[in-house]
Amino acid sequence: MTWLITGGAGYIGAHVVRAMTEAGERTVVYDDLSTGIAERLPDGVPLVVGSTLDGERVRRTLAGHRVTGVVHLAAKKQVGESVELPLHYYRENVEGLRVLLEAVAAAGVPAFVFSSSAAVYGMPDVDLVTEETPCAPMSPYGETKLAGEWLVRATGRATGLSTACLRYFNVAGAACPELADVGVSNLIPMVFERLTENAPPRIFGDDYPTPDGTCVRDYIHVVDLAEAHVAAARALRSAPGLALTLNIGRGEGVSVREMIDRINAVTGHGRPPAIAPRRPGDPARVVAAADRAAAELGWKAKHDVQDMITSAWEGWVRLHPEAARG
Ligand code: WQD
């Protein structure tokens, strides 16, 4: 099979490409390079520069590379930005997916893996979020991911396309420093940035109803997440007509305070955090029930939070050598 990886030059996408090629799958990357970086791709993987909104280019790519499966990661993913620019997010994430699915259906491609998010759950009021927990996204970003799942499943029902919607929890870490996330919009890089500036890391709210008062999340190593894509792609290949919706997490909650303590230990900075006001829209606790992915895919995360922080730090220091002073 040849897999088209949209968004394959992005942080998560490049890890998926690496895992798929290491597993012996042929891949072609389709990326508009708006945030993607071509140098992240392994030698020999073809790159088509284009938007999934460009149906003609998608059709030509599917036919030209004889694509037999798609892993769709190309999307905008900043929650705050989606509040400012909802129409842009709906266009890129929903219309971009609709155009892609139209081409996939017309070409008779049989398998489709969709990059979804725990953001579809919004503020879940449960200890462990199962795939049956009601979806109530809190941002246009989360809405576009939920609408995307609807498009994917409806297309599967109508055409027989085998589908998997993977709901990522909090993704972190890197396979190697070159593939580390270059964005500074999540907890770990935001703490790294503060430490690099010699400023205390910030905790956004310590009065949540959690054991230490700070928000609890389920962090998943990007290498494990990439392996989940390989497992999903293989499951779809061997079972036509499948429709999977799966949480991809570790099922283990870690608080912001615990994360900052561990980051301080790994980096050697040892800088006590400062308490800042709550960030609007943050749920107190979002932790996956991860057993369905294990049952359906035989996949389980192998890496812990220590691995995530250590590998992310190696990537950070590569770009910010001055940070290593700790
Ligand atoms: C984690 C916790 C912060 C920085 C978001 C999206 C989600 C997904 C992943 C998409 C929160 C706290 C952070 C800091 C802090 N995105 N924090 N100090 O908000 O759980 O999830 O990213 O693809 O859809 O919602 O992740 O890493 O931003 O924050 O206290 O300097 O860390 O308030 O509780 P979040 P995050």
UniProtKB/TrEMBL annotation:
Top-level EC class: isomerase
A Pfam family per the record: Epimerase
NAD-dependent epimerase/dehydratase domain mapped to chain residues: 3-240
Keyword annotations: Carbohydrate metabolism, Isomerase, NAD
EC number per UniProt: 5.1.3.2
Listed cofactors: NAD(+)
Pathway(s) where this gene product acts: Carbohydrate metabolism; galactose metabolism
Matches recorded under InterPro entries: Epimerase_deHydtase (IPR001509), NAD(P)-bd_dom_sf (IPR036291), UDP_G4E (IPR005886)
Reactions performed catalytically: UDP-alpha-D-glucose = UDP-alpha-D-galactose
Family of the protein in this entry: Belongs to the NAD(P)-dependent epimerase/dehydratase family.
Protein's name according to its UniProt entry: UDP-glucose 4-epimerase
Species, as recorded: Streptomyces glaucus
